[in-house]
Automatic annotation (TrEMBL):
PANTHER family: CHEMOSENSORY PROTEIN-RELATED (PTHR11257), GEO07322P1 (PTHR11257:SF13). The lineage of its organism: Eukaryota, Metazoa, Ecdysozoa, Arthropoda, Hexapoda. This is Putative chemosensory protein CSP8. Pfam families: OS-D (PF03392). It comes from Solenopsis invicta (Red imported fire ant). Gene3D superfamilies: Insect odorant-binding protein A10/Ejaculatory bulb-specific protein 3.
Amino acid sequence: MCILAEELQPYPSEYDIYVPKILANDVVRQKAVDCYLKKGPCTEQEKLATDLFRDALKTNCKKCGEKQKEHVKILTEWFVKNQPDTWKLIIENVDS
């Protein structure tokens, strides 16, 4: 019997970000949302971070390390509680 499994490459830890600081800063948070939604410019680092976040949402964080899972949970809970309309847009744009 042969079992083939896709080997998941974990997200690189150097792209871990300090989520509470971003959420606490209205300007930085909005810039990140605009980048994710492709409504504003993105630096290369922001583009990579939003791509990783999008993939994490799509795959239910299968490639996330423990810290990354914690970050996704913090982001999700914050947006659901504080900006549910923005969270809806984030979810609607997972595949874009």
